[in-house]
Amino acid sequence: MSFAELVFLVLKGELPNEKQKTMVNVLLCSIGDYGFNSMVSVPGRTITSASPDSPMPGIAAGLLSLGRTYVSPQYAGELLEQSYATMKKENLSVEEIADRVVREYTDRGEAIPGLGHPLYRSDDLRAESLLKVQHELDIFGEKSEIYEAIRVRAEQEFDREISLNWPARVACIGAELDMAPFEYTGIAAIAYMPALIAHIQEEVTEGVPLRIIPPIINDYTGVPERPLPERFVKVGAK
Questions:
Q1: How far is residue 98's CA from residue 152's CA, in Å, rounded to a whole number?
Q2: At what angle do helices 142-158 and 94-108 cross, to 10 degrees?
Q3: Least confident interval from 30-34, 74-78, 136-140, 213-217
Q4: pLDDT higher than threshold 60 for residue 21
Q5: 3-state DSSP call for residue 209?
Q6: Counting Cβ atoms within 10 Å, is residue 5 exposed (0-12), middle (13-18) or buried (19+)?
Q7: Percent of the chain with pLDDT over 90
Q8: 3.40.50.1000, 1.10.150.130, 1.10.230.10, 3.20.20.70: CATH of 68-178
Q9: Average pLDDT over residues 177-191
Q10: Are the beta carbons of 175 and 77 closer than 8 angstroms?
Q11: Three-class SS of residue 7?
């Protein structure tokens, strides 16, 4: 049994067919490396430098950083599931549900999960690779069409190119495989583990105690500096 088959069996209680096995394997291989300054490697390395006796604290710290704005496909998946249910319930077209989603998020002033990336403006290369496999395996269905329509409608709304990012594509694939958001979010965490473990191993090998990551943001944004009232000033202080 391959690891992809094992993951699918444990999550779904059934062995995958060939398409499911291939797609899960591709997901597990789709985000296996990341640079030094990422929201996963930095906390993992920092905790490891303070606690180098075991890899577990660093692994846990890195995984805890996966969330709404970084790597986790959970929120894109929940948006997709809700949109699909509403579309079926109200007999809407893919374009109509996409228009509603974009309008609702825009009216609330919220970012739409699954859209955009700070580096991949027009195309998220990782997501495009997953999309290629989706088409090759013929598992690009109605749920995937919804997210593509949301992306197109968002481009019209904001008058710029917007990519469908990796978490959104994972959500589309997970939905087409009849997985729940929690299930394929777990697969995303597993997929990130090799890179995280490699960072932690390197941190232990380098032996840097209490590593401090150089700050990127140097501008102070707090309240203006001002003197303390005299009653708090030490007697005799100049």
A1: 9
A2: 50
A3: 213-217
A4: yes
A5: coil
A6: middle
A7: 65
A8: 1.10.230.10
A9: 94
A10: yes
A11: helix
Cα separation, 139 vs 144, in Å, equals 9
Confidence of residue 67 (pLDDT cuts 50, 70, 90): confident
How confident is the model at residue 236, as a pLDDT?
Answer: 63
Measuring CA to CA, which residue among 228, 143, 173 is closest to residue 30?
Answer: 173
Q: Return d(Cα 83, Cα 77) in angstroms, integer.
A: 10
- The DSSP output letter for 115 is B
Q: Tell me what the mean pLDDT of segment 17-41 comes to.
A: 87
DSSP string, 124-183: -HHHHHHHHHHHHHT---HHHHHHHHHHHHHHHHHTS---B-HHHHHHHHHHHTT--HHH
Show me where the domains of the chain are located. 31-65+183-209, 68-178
Answer yes or no: is pLDDT of 218 > 70.
no
User: Is residue 219 classed as helix, strand or coil in its secondary structure?
Assistant: coil
Nearest CA-CA partner of 193 in 93, 9, 90, 55: 55
Q: Which of the 8 DSSP states describes residue 67?
A: B
pLDDT tens figures, 73-104: 999 999 999 999 999 999 999 999 999 999 99
Q: What is the DSSP string of 169-207?
A: HHHHHHHHTT--HHHHHHHHHHHHHHHHHHHHHHHHHHT
Q: Cα 210 vs. chain centroid, distance in angstroms?
A: 27
Report d(CA 217, CA 106) in Å as an integer: 28
